[in-house]
Write a structure and sequence with these properties.
Number of strands: 12
Helix content: 10-25%
Bound molecules: fe (iii) ion
Structural class: alpha+beta
Strand order of the largest sheet: 1-3-2-4-11-6-9
Largest sheet: 7 strands, mixed
Amino acid sequence: MDPRWTTLLQEARAAHGASPELRDFCAFPDALRDQPGEPRPDPLATTLQDAPGDTSARWQGFRDAACAVGPIARWRDTYRHTAIGADLHRHFGCYELLGQDAPYGTEEMRGFLVYQRPGYHYPAHHHPAEEIYLVVTGEAEFHLDGHAPRRLGPGGTVFHPSGLAHALTTHDSPVLAWVLWRGEMDRRPVFSDPALQGEAQA
Ligand code: FE
């Protein structure tokens, strides 16, 4: 396994230990299969290098490790073939660290690094899996159906219940986040607005 992955795994485990919300969400899996795969490059890997540092320094190691993996990550094509796919993928990128077809294999949960550039609204979508976001660096506004929007910075977490629509807006800053899934993890997300259509490819 490339040492950049090993470092990122260590940082993810450390972040898990440091966040009561993540620990409540799920255990960090012990038994992980090494599943090295071919990278799927994405221009976002370069943009990711501009992710802001964490002024509290608490999440800096996680941020640095996530950026270091950018060039060798298997960037996901979710929503690429939907009506807004091209625009979305210019502003948003995601790769998996833990999960079924991630470099570290497990069936217990999935863990993704996501990066969104400034000034973008990721439209409302939903999925059966329960989800928790931990902001690593930067800042974003989190929208959850029936709740007031919340602006979160480094260390902030938000829980998305199964099937409840949620959206993500960045303003002046990009956001780098660590996202965990549990529960029904095989079903893909879908946009809430039928006009956007096209089922996403998880
Ligand atoms: Fe989601």
